[in-house]
Amino acid sequence: MARTEGRVDGRTARAERTRAAIVDAHLALIAEGDLRPTGERIAERAGVSLRALWTNFADMETLFEASGRQVLAQQDAAFQPVPPTLPLRQRVAEFCAQRVRLLQLIAPMARAAQLREPYSAQLHRNRLKHIARVRDEVEALFAPELEMAGAGRDQLLHALIASTMWPAWSMLREGLGLDEEQAAAVMLRTVTALLLNAMATGLA
């Protein structure tokens, strides 16, 4: 029995290594600029057969799901919570600086997802997970200011999320051609203005 269990455990470990190699290959190709890597390219990069790729992943949607989990794990590793007890301007500055770091981290994957999301339910679900994480962070970090916004609370929350997600960052960097420092300054100005204006309106 122990020998059989050892063989099963060995097969499981090999399958996990193969899956990890495929996900790593997928993300590496995207990071290098191949935003729509084919199964053949991914398998070649992972050092596995095309048959092994599709044995471990039923289709591209299941690969997108696994790759999305890996990207979220990378973000988790880079994430450093901003203390909610800091003064407002310091909270805004640290929040925006962190958003810039994380957006730069996921930039290649975000560009790739933009190309395929209209045809991929899984990529849409992946994006919703990123939005939910930013929502949770904004609600925790700026809870007093959101409360002070009164009836405009939800509008302020949505504006803060939208202005610090990938589409806004892509517009600053790629649409307007700003460098990272310039784009970060615009984000900081936008978030500061949104909070201060909403607080003033809510208290009026």
Protein architecture, described:
It is a single chain. The protein is mainly α and 204 residues long. It has 2 domains: 57 residues, Arc Repressor Mutant, subunit A (Orthogonal Bundle), CATH 1.10.10; 145 residues. Helix 1 crosses helix 4 and helix 8 packs antiparallel against helix 10.
Explain briefly what this protein structure is.
The chain is 81% helix and 0% strand.
Topology of this structure?
Layout: H1 2-31, H2 39-46, H3 50-56, H4 60-78, H5 88-116, H6 121-141, H7 143-148, H8 153-163, H9 166-175, H10 180-203
Helix pairs in contact: 1-2, 1-4, 2-3, 4-5, 4-6, 5-10, 6-8, 8-10
Write down the domain tally: 2
- The number of helices is 10
Order of helices and strands: HHHHHHHHHH
Amount of beta strand: under 5%
Task: Give a quick set of tags describing it.
Arc Repressor Mutant, subunit A, 2 domains, 0% strand
